[in-house]
Write a structure and sequence with these properties.
- The protein is an alpha/beta fold and 348 residues long.
- The chain has 14 helices and 13 strands.
- Helix content is 38%, strand content 15%.
- Strand 3 and strand 4 form a beta hairpin.
- Helix 2 runs parallel beside helix 4, helix 6 packs parallel to helix 12 and helix 10 crosses helix 13.
- The longest helix has 16 residues.
């Protein structure tokens, strides 16, 4: 079974959902090739704006976030040729906040990319893999869905940690435009009391969002340096507003903090609750709870150490190297599903 994996990018989404799992599967002896963007080998045969054929040598093709109109068409064409197509999705693109830059890119009618194209690709796919159960209801109502939770590569583990009471958010406001509102004035109140608040990511506009006098220290971090940047936080936060988009979010952010030994406080969204139930972190559902739990952590080095150790213990069981077989299992399932599907003739 020859599998070609096409990551959507070389950043977080592409790495966690395609590149790293694909590399693990290849290292385990499976016939899997991760095709980076610069090495794309899929060729579309076009007739005007219609995809007539797709020239690719594979039994299974794995595509991420299929938002381009031509690639959405290509899914059905590949399947007609007998090639199994797996579409991987890690966010509900149909419910992106309008203030998120991704909204303008994927809004139907503004260009070749749209969330309607992704929905079409998922309807036509042999199998849809998603990062959370909630996404099955968005993209795999046809029943051909498979949940592959996010796991962490080894670089997140065993990082040195220096304890501190510095509170930090490993996120960027542009991709979380309405999430700081769930903490209310908790962070601002703690800063007034002497706390230091920082960010790991673009902090532009975050000062106003958290009620601060200025934007906190922050800045973009290359993906290779991200685990160490997360580990440098004393206390982490993971705020998520209760929206349709966030109800499908994975546990990745608090999981990263757990693996790095950072005690964290997070919103009670579904996947955060799931990770907390395993023994990691603290949940806060109201601004006063955010304030109380963050203050407790600031005031107690012993509590920070307790939550740090508990988080690391939970994350230890969620290493990608121990779960990469799940990707190979899903791709093999798609292969068998496609073999059971009669081929159709591609129009000339």
């Amino acid at each position: 079974m020859k599998t070609l994996v096409y990551p959507s990018d070389s950043q977080g989404c592409g790495s966690f959902r395609a590149i790293w799992p694909g590399e693990h599967c290849a290292a385990a002896g499976h016939d899997v090739e991760v095709v980076r963007q610069k090495d794309r080998s899929v060729r579309l045969v076009m007739e005007g704006r219609v995809v007539k054929d797709v020239l690719v040598d594979a039994d299974v093709v794995v595509l991420q976030r299929v938002t381009h109109a031509y690639m959405a068409q290509a899914v059905a064409v590949l399947r007609a040729k007998g090639v199994a197509v797996v579409v991987d999705v890690d966010d509900d693109l149909s419910s992106i906040h309008p203030s998120n830059p991704a909204w303008a890119v994927h809004r139907p009618g503004t260009g070749p990319h749209s969330w309607h194209n992704l929905a079409l690709a998922c309807r036509e796919a042999t199998l849809v893999t998603v990062s959370t159960p909630a996404l099955l209801d968005v993209y795999a109502r046809h029943g051909r869905g498979h949940v592959l939770p996010n796991y962490l590569p080894d670089q997140y583990y065993g990082l040195p940690r220096t304890d501190s009471d510095v509170i930090g958010w490993p996120g960027s406001l542009h991709s979380h435009p309405n999430d700081p509102e769930v903490v209310g004035g908790a962070v601002a109140r703690l800063v007034d009391e002497g706390a230091t608040f920082v960010m790991r990511g673009d902090s532009t506009g975050a000062g106003r969002a958290f009620g601060l006098a200025a934007d906190p220290a922050g800045g973009g971090v290359p993906i290779g340096e991200w685990p160490a940047a997360v580990a440098s936080l004393g206390i982490g936060i993971a705020p998520l507003a209760d929206t349709k988009f966030n109800r499908s979010k994975s546990w990745l952010k608090p999981l990263e903090m757990s693996a790095a030994g950072v005690p964290w406080v997070a919103s009670p969204r579904a996947e955060y609750r799931r990770l907390h139930a395993m023994g990691a972190g603290v949940l806060a559902d109201r601004p006063r709870v955010w304030y109380r739990e963050l203050r407790r952590l600031r005031e107690s080095a012993a509590l920070r150490q307790e939550l740090s150790e508990a988080g690391r213990a939970v994350a230890e069981g969620l290493r990608l190297r121990d779960h990469s077989w799940r990707w190979q299992e899903a791709w093999a399932r798609a292969y068998e599903m496609q073999r059971a599907t009669p081929r159709t003739t591609v129009a000339a």
